[in-house]
């Protein structure tokens, strides 16, 4: 269909992408083998068969298992470069990627090993293709605020490479306010901040992200739609929502793509964007997310363009860079 062709061809941005969530089973097994580590699953097929999730936690359990084979700088480079090559072929021109340092430091992989590999791949993509990139360090919310502070301390020598801070992992039971002080410290360092909120968590967590963390953006935000006053606040503050359609489907945030609220978000005047979250686990990269929305929700051409434009204006590019893409 012509809208799907259009979506494939148009220049796109990705604002919500966990680099560890791009770990394809084939590459996972290859790196496991060269690092001489064992995976719980014996074959690519057995692993893929396990990708059926009832909720966020089901997915996170496999996500942390998968990343455990990443040991050396070259592993982080190869992972990141494989992702960048894929999305470059999909006409993605700008990416803002999350990494989860605590998912690696907790297993003894130093912070600098991780960031050096990831950052070198980002630099290579900028040089090779003129892609523009941002790096977002994300705190794991199931861990303590103290652990987040330790992570921030480890990041201090690399702040020139880090554009923003995120908050991810198990949402329920770990409200944004748990990380109030560490996010204030990040803001004081001039970093942008965003937080996963309202994916599984209640509207109250989105309120906290806005009023206590003072986020520059909201990751997911689906459940904000349950609270009219919250919707009004998000619109007034002109905050961008990084929506992830296939993720929402696989994690049962929506039970069917025909029920996805993206059209409603746009109709309410919210700056919704399309993103892939953890594409290796959720069944598709940028173009697949757009295709799924087009097929499932029947978004029209104007809505398609609005989503792509929101991805530019909601990015952390400077105004001049944004203008060059509009
Ligand atoms: C995540 Cl979809 C999602 N939600 C929360 N935390 C995450 N980490 C990686 N993907
Ligand atoms: Zn996410």
Brief characterization of the structure:
The chain is 49% helix and 14% strand. The chain is of the alpha/beta class and 326 residues long.
Number of strands: 8
Largest sheet: 8 strands, parallel
Q: How much of the polypeptide forms β-strand, as a percent range?
A: 5-15%
**Bound molecule kinds, no repeats:** 6-chloro-9H-purine, zinc ion
- The tally of helices reads 17
Written description of the protein model:
Belongs to the metallo-dependent hydrolases superfamily. Adenosine and AMP deaminases family. Adenine deaminase type 2 subfamily. InterPro entries: A_deaminase_dom, ADE, Ado/ade_deaminase, Metal_Hydrolase. Its EC number is 3.5.4.2. Helix content is 49%, strand content 14%. With 326 residues, the chain is α/β, with parallel strands linked by helices. It has one domain: Metal-dependent hydrolases (TIM Barrel, Alpha-Beta Barrel). An eight-stranded parallel beta sheet has the order 1-2-3-4-5-6-7-8. The longest helix has 19 residues. It is globular, with a radius of gyration of 18 Å. The model has no long low-confidence stretch (mean pLDDT 98). 6-chloro-9H-purine binds next to helix 4.
What are the salient characteristics of this protein?
single chain, alpha/beta, TIM Barrel, eight-stranded parallel sheet, globular, binds 6-chloro-9H-purine, binds zinc ion, adenine deaminase activity, ADE
């Amino acid at each position: 269909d012509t809208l799907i062709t259009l979506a494939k061809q148009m220049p796109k941005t990705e604002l919500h992408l966990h680099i560890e969530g791009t770990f394809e089973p084939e590459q996972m097994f290859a790196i496991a083998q060269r690092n001489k580590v064992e995976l719980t699953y014996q074959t690519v097929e057995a692993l893929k068969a396990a990708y059926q999730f009832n909720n966020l936690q089901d997915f996170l359990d496999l996500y942390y298992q998968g990343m455990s084979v990443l040991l050396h700088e070259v592993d982080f480079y190869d992972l990141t470069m494989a992702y960048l090559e894929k999305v470059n072929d999909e006409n993605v021109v700008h990416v803002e990627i999350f990494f989860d340092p605590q998912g690696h430091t907790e297993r003894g992989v130093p912070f600098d090993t991780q960031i050096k590999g990831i950052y070198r791949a980002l630099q290579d993509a900028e040089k090779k293709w003129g892609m523009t990139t941002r790096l977002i360090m994300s705190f794991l919310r199931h861990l303590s605020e103290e652990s987040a502070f330790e992570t921030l301390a480890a990041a201090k020598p690399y702040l020139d490479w880090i554009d923003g801070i995120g908050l991810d992992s198990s949402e329920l039971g770990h409200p944004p306010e748990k990380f109030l002080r560490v996010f204030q410290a990040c803001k004081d360092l001039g970093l942008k901040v965003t937080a996963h909120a309202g994916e599984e968590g209640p509207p109250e967590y989105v309120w906290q992200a806005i009023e206590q963390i003072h986020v520059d953006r909201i990751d997911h935000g689906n459940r904000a739609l349950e609270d009219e006053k919250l919707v009004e606040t998000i619109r007034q503050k002109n905050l961008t929502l990084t929506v992830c359609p296939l993720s929402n489907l696989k994690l049962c945030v929506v039970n069917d793509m025909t029920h996805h609220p993206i059209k409603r978000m746009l109709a309410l005047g919210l700056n919704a964007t399309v993103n892939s979250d953890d594409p290796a686990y959720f069944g598709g990269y940028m173009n697949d997310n757009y295709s799924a929305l087009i097929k499932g929700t029947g978004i029209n051409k104007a809505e398609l363009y609005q989503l792509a434009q929101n991805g530019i204006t909601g990015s952390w590019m400077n105004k001049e860079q944004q203008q060059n893409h509009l």
